[in-house]
Amino acid sequence: MTEPRVSVEFQQRELFPELPDEKTMAAWVAAAAERDVEITIRFVDEAEGFDLNSRYRHKDYATNVLTFDYEHEPVVRADLAICVPVLVRQAREQGKTFLAHLCHLIVHGTLHAHGYDHVTQEQADVMEPLEIRILQKIGFEDPYQDRGEQPADSQRRPLP
């Protein structure tokens, strides 16, 4: 079996100098890829994160990651919006490193792009162990070990 082909485009990365290089983040997407993937990751500030979450999920707060998945097969096509200020705040509150939490959100969003979800307990029982295995393979700890973390959000509508 051949490795999935992974194409990742990054938007607004230059606004957040704390982000790792693109090669590292693309490797995290690849670690979660089950089939060919074409994904755009847009890094947003709190205002844009609030706007997107309000517009597409009708929630009055900026969330950590939003997944806008367009196609699951034969190629996964999706956009992720990662709100960096929320990511920074959550990492600090949860006693995690910025990189560990960012990796988790990228893996989490990539799995949503593949069609995984965690709305029901049955879905979470499939998605969370998969996330844990992928993150441990990359070298990060179980993000749910303290169970204090709230799952990342997803929404299935396109970015404007």
UniProtKB/TrEMBL annotation:
Segments forming a coiled coil: none
Xref: Pfam families: YbeY
EC numbers: 3.1.-.-
Q: Which domain of life is it from?
A: Bacteria
| Record text on cofactor binding | Binds 1 zinc ion.
Entry binding sites for Zn(2+): 108, 112, 118
Name the keywords, alphabetized.
Cytoplasm, Endonuclease, Hydrolase, Metal-binding, Nuclease, Ribosome biogenesis, rRNA processing, Zinc
Instruction: State where it is primarily located.
Output: cytoplasm
The cofactors it requires, by name, are: Zn(2+)
Where does it localize?
Cytoplasm
Enzyme class, one word?
Answer: hydrolase
What this chain does, per the entry, is described as: Single strand-specific metallo-endoribonuclease involved in late-stage 70S ribosome quality control and in maturation of the 3' terminus of the 16S rRNA.
Q: Which family does it belong to?
A: Belongs to the endoribonuclease YbeY family.
Protein name from the UniProt record: Endoribonuclease YbeY
Gene source species: Mesosutterella porci
Provide the taxonomic classification.
Bacteria, Pseudomonadati, Pseudomonadota, Betaproteobacteria, Burkholderiales
